[in-house]
């Protein structure tokens, strides 16, 4: 099997939403062109010492491991990725519920967060909650949201961001401690972090966050993570993608 | 040993900050008046089957386990607590970095968060970053913060909260999906959750969050958690408190 | 719904294999007759604050949570159990791969392990590897195992156990350190531990270890754990049992 | 700072005990000669965005992070290592209590374990339990262990190993399932695994297992792991080694 060119380390940030990105920092366990996903395959072979027939073929082995997930998922812990992400705080709030990842995030206690904020497009606003009705309009709202409404919301949101920023700067200038000056900071403001975990956990993250029930914004981040995963672990991701259809 | 009255289940919410609280929901491993902390003690005795001299005395055993922490900390995993907490979002942001706890939090995707927001007192604002200088005023600020400045910040913060709330209600009324209407929501708004973990992890949480370098607000929550711990696990907490002085 | 009598704390050891057992020590989150599984249900309601229609009925709520597992599994972390187990070392070797449980096990470094060993029945030996062919006879073995062979193995195993025990006692009597005297100890010897984790993790354990591909011996332990779970969390386990058929 | 030659990937197995080894498979986060430990340093800088004075110097930053461990330990999660280990089963039994590592071990269910067993040297036997008295001779043993006793134990142990091996081979030849034929297998037999985790967890492992209270055998493995860590993360390990004196 000859490898696609994109197996080379991918370090350009992939843009997400209006000001966010996902960027690959480092990978391990991905092997090389001669033996891609070597870290996973060698770990799996450690258990069986050649006793399983058919496992001499990497493809058959990977497919067996993937399809019998829980009892055979540990080899996927022998590869992993570090990424860098810029996303709105409300996206990080959902992301950080994944307790198997390591995080180092910018802290508004230590440095003022730059004035970069998420404003959803009209198209996005019109999607409502997508496939997740609970996330949509409040129950009992009789109004049908139209483009004008969406645009009104956008302007008001931009105004809210501006209103906070003015107060933030004034508070910092007055000597208000940074950790308090942030009280009014909107959850739509962008923050930045590095995140690291093994491939098993990345696949778990993708399963939950590429799901149509997840909030559309975190779905976009998950898709960027999946794109990077595909460039690093093409055969595993082929199985992953196949399993979702 | 006769037990203090407060060993009885404590379920009244303990008020924290202007609108928050911590409330005990359930405990396990705490034994009864006849044998407090029984869950911990019996787990420890499981390992040694009576082979350690001196361990027939509960106090000596607990003290040994506590002081030799890492190799002997597992018995503290055999007790635990579920609590309910109301706190500002920026406190939850710090809290959720503790990846060994279980969380179920109100979701602004599913229900509008009530208009309850944190406004620090003048006294609190004047503390600046406390013992953590990094969290204080931005470097280069020549101004000395005075009471007037603190009061100005309070009014502006209240205004910011009000500004958002108006837009939030108007957005929800227009049929904007709840998950987007929240973009401008300030991190000073109160949210609510249940949190559960074993005593070993609660002690880890207390160690980090009662530290003078932690943000003052989360310190107040940690003190409320410690208060509840003392009512449930008096002998362990005596050792914990002694270890901090 | 009136509760089955067995919802009362079950503390009698359930016998497993020739000398093992599983015993319930403590449960949390199970609520009471008036509201079984209250810990799980209240945690789930925390997230939604009454915003989901249909969730006012406990059964509908539990069923929703259970069937949408990964995104909605956290409420099952708000209940849990501590158990005590006696099992052969090779069973514990498999059990301890579950990294989300807490363990306190007898230590042969600290106290000589009693001379109690697992001898499989003829019937069990004749099962071969059950549904897991890899665990069966070595490849290339042409012999068909018969009852006589099984009985021969049993006698030889008993002899091996006896041979070690004699050396063990002699080594301990000579003053050989306990931590070394154990070198020859067979993995069929019984050890004992306490194990604790939340219900979400117990369900994960059951899924893997009640599977026909798991070793028959640990299946028997998993069945005993499931039996206890049913007595404590009857409605969750009804969903669990239904999901396996 | 010019880097020591041993910063190059080290892949030769380091011998441990009579037949064991530890071997580096892969590292991440270690940076290169121009910026060693880059993964850790960049993750740390992510949090503070240049707001801490003095942190422009890598050494000062690493030292700050290391010495303020718990609140500032997360950057050490952005580097890690995969290793391969051959060790006696009783060493693996202790090792696997570290629940933050990933493991893939040879399975005696799937392939007969080769006849390689640990026989402690006379010198080792004479150490008794070292600094851990509990691990030494059983209480009440009046005998002083002498060289003759140690040699007697060695011969008996070798005999026990031989006795089992004969039965094992005979059982396998008779068609006894592999997963049962192993019941009599001594915990002194060597097994093999891959283990992977981040540097924060490796440091935790080293702290516990290089301690004089740990069993001498696992201390030897921890020292080999530390040796590899030093070759990959020289500046972090300098801080680690200094902290232990």
Overview of the structural elements:
The structure is a homotetramer of 245-residue chains. Chain A is built from 10 helices and 7 strands. By secondary structure, the first copy, chain A, is of the alpha+beta class. Chain A has helices at residues 38-48, 58-67, 69-72, 89-95, 122-126, 147-174, 178-181, 199-209, 216-232, 234-243, and strands spanning 14-16, 20-28, 31-32, 35-36, 80-88, 102-105, 190-198. Helix content of chain A is 44%, strand content 16%. Chain A has a 5-stranded antiparallel beta sheet with strand order 1-2-5-7-6. Chain A has a two-stranded antiparallel sheet with strand order 3-4. At the A-B interface, helix 4, helix 6 and helix 7 of A face helix 4, helix 6 and helix 7 of B.
Low-pLDDT residue spans of chain A:
1-8
In DSSP terms (H or I, runs of 4 or more residues), the helix count of chain A works out at 10
Shape of chain A: elongated
Range of strand content of chain A? 15-25%
What oligomeric arrangement do these chains adopt?
homotetramer
Structure classification of chain A? alpha+beta
What share of the residues of chain A lie within helices?
40-55%
Instruction: Summarize the main sheet of chain A.
Output: 5 strands, antiparallel
Q: How would you write the strand order of the largest sheet of chain A?
A: 1-2-5-7-6
User: Secondary-structure element order of chain A, as H and E?
Assistant: EEEEHHHEHEHHHEHHH
Protein chain pair with the most extensive contact, residues per chain: A-B, 63 and 65 residues
* First-residue to last-residue Cα separation of chain A: 24 Å
> Residue-averaged pLDDT of chain A, rounded?
89
Compute the CA-based radius of gyration of chain A: 22 Å
Count of beta strands of chain A:
7
